[in-house]
Amino acid sequence: MNAPAVEVPRPPLSVAVVTETYPPEVNGVAMTVGRLVQGLRARGHRVQVIRPRQPGEEASLVADGDATLGGLPLPGYPGLRFGLPAKGKLLRAWRQERPDVVHLVTEGPLGWSALAAARRLGIPATSGFHTNFDRYSIHYGFGILRPAVAAYLRTFHRRTLATLAPTVALAAALAGEGIPGVKVVGRGVDTALFDPQRRDGALRASWGVAEGGLAVLSVGRVAAEKNLPLTLKAFAAIRAQRPDARLVVVGDGPLRRSLEAAHPDHHFAGVRVGEDLAAHYASGDLFLFPSLTETFGNVTLEALASGLPTVAYRSAAAAELIRDGEHGVTVNPGDEAAFVAAAVGVATDAAGRQRLAQAARAKALACSWDQVVTDFETVLRQASGGAAGAYAAALGSASSLPMV
């Protein structure tokens, strides 16, 4: 008889993660990267995070071996910063202590310079496609630059061994644009944190929701790209049928002040994190998410885990996680009339909301962060084996691009 195969432990990786957003910043990308880094470190890998330093940030917030570099405020988002080019610093650091692989989270000046340094040293590099910056340009008065922004993003990701996309649809779109090595690495959710059991009657009362009333939630950046006018339109239609309804907006952003002034009857909860955020989700009755700029939309998965019935466009996470009429309600992207009708339909159907809530929770329970970290680790290991000649060969399709 043949002896059973013995699995040989694989050595830990040394990974440099370059990102322009990271906890304690509050956004989907920061949360995702924080989870991935935490997961890799828990498995024994050495991970160095390289990012811009936030104003007033104390050194105690930076983990041992991590690096913070110079940055500037992101226009329209004063709480976020983009990193300045640091190719020289990274070349010196990586020559002294060479990582097995560099993972690039964002495509800004810091990310581009890190990509240049990795290519110069022959270090395999992977990237993540987290934000549709080309779509954002429309909402900030720079729509004329959308083709240029899209071209820049394509150029950036064509120069890495693998580009990670959170959904099958986005992966197919990126591959169709000529980006090589596209891999699907999804998102997970902490179902112990986001749990319907955190529903809080006192919190609902603080929102001004009467006993038996309807709490309609909007969670995310209070910004133009989130399509908040449609949220307001849908809520107005709901209130015409349910006068006891109350709109609760969770989050902050450049539009918050103007919306608060224009809608004093709505409750603006500001930024909420951890158990506080989870209680807000669980204490709602209906979640409206009309954004069309998401690559994924972590809030969708958090709402599902919280047993919160969701109405969304059939796009990004909602398209892959929500079976229409079973886990929530989805409508064709851009069909505003259908979105409003769906929102009113769910708002006026108490039994339907209960059914959707139970199915949503069951769906989210299958979305494990552990599996996401495993998928991410697999991509990094594959890339780390692509150094030297194999790395150059893999980038052959980008050989005509100018070197940086």
From TrEMBL:
<dbReference type="GO" id="GO:0016757">
    <property type="term" value="F:glycosyltransferase activity"/>
</dbReference>
<keyword id="KW-0808">Transferase</keyword>
<dbReference type="Pfam" id="PF13692">
    <property type="entry name" value="Glyco_trans_1_4"/>
</dbReference>
<dbReference type="InterPro" id="IPR028098">
    <property type="entry name" value="Glyco_trans_4-like_N"/>
</dbReference>
<protein>
    <submittedName>
        <fullName>Glycosyltransferase family protein</fullName>
    </submittedName>
</protein>
<dbReference type="Pfam" id="PF13439">
    <property type="entry name" value="Glyco_transf_4"/>
</dbReference>
<feature type="domain" description="Glycosyltransferase subfamily 4-like N-terminal">
    <location>
        <begin position="26"/>
        <end position="192"/>
    </location>
</feature>
<dbReference type="InterPro" id="IPR050194">
    <property type="entry name" value="Glycosyltransferase_grp1"/>
</dbReference>
